[in-house]
Specification:
By secondary structure, the protein is α+β, with helices and mostly antiparallel strands. It has helices spanning 24-34, 55-60, 78-90, 93-99; strands spanning 9-15, 40-45, 48-51, 68-74.
């Protein structure tokens, strides 16, 4: 990713918590979450780098449960965008649903 002069890239490694991996519903949630941020976000797994605003790109990564991905963000709200993605990726809502006796899946 090209970094404009004076603009830093924030990088954070995240581990996929969802037992179904980074599947279509989670990828859609990521893309929708990024709509509220100006930051440019890319996601990298095993040397493959995709746009964080692309559901198909995220699915192409084939990130399974426990896999590590690298999130790169740049822009004025990069920290907020990465924090939001961290909550979506590293929190397994299925676990919370099972503990409450609810069958809701993400």
């Amino acid at each position: 990713m090209n970094t404009p002069k004076g603009e830093e890239t924030l990088e954070r490694t995240l581990r996929i918590a969802n037992h179904q991996g980074l599947h279509a519903r989670v990828a859609t949630m990521v893309v929708q979450a990024l709509q509220q941020y100006a930051a440019s976000v890319t996601v990298v797994k095993d040397g493959v780098e995709v746009d964080g605003r692309s559901v198909l790109g995220l699915l192409l990564l084939a990130a399974t449960h426990g896999a590590e991905i690298l999130v790169k963000a740049q822009g004025p709200d990069r920290e907020e965008a990465v924090e939001h993605l961290s909550r979506l990726i590293e929190y397994d809502d299925n676990e919370a649903a099972r503990s409450k006796g609810n069958s809701r899946n993400i």
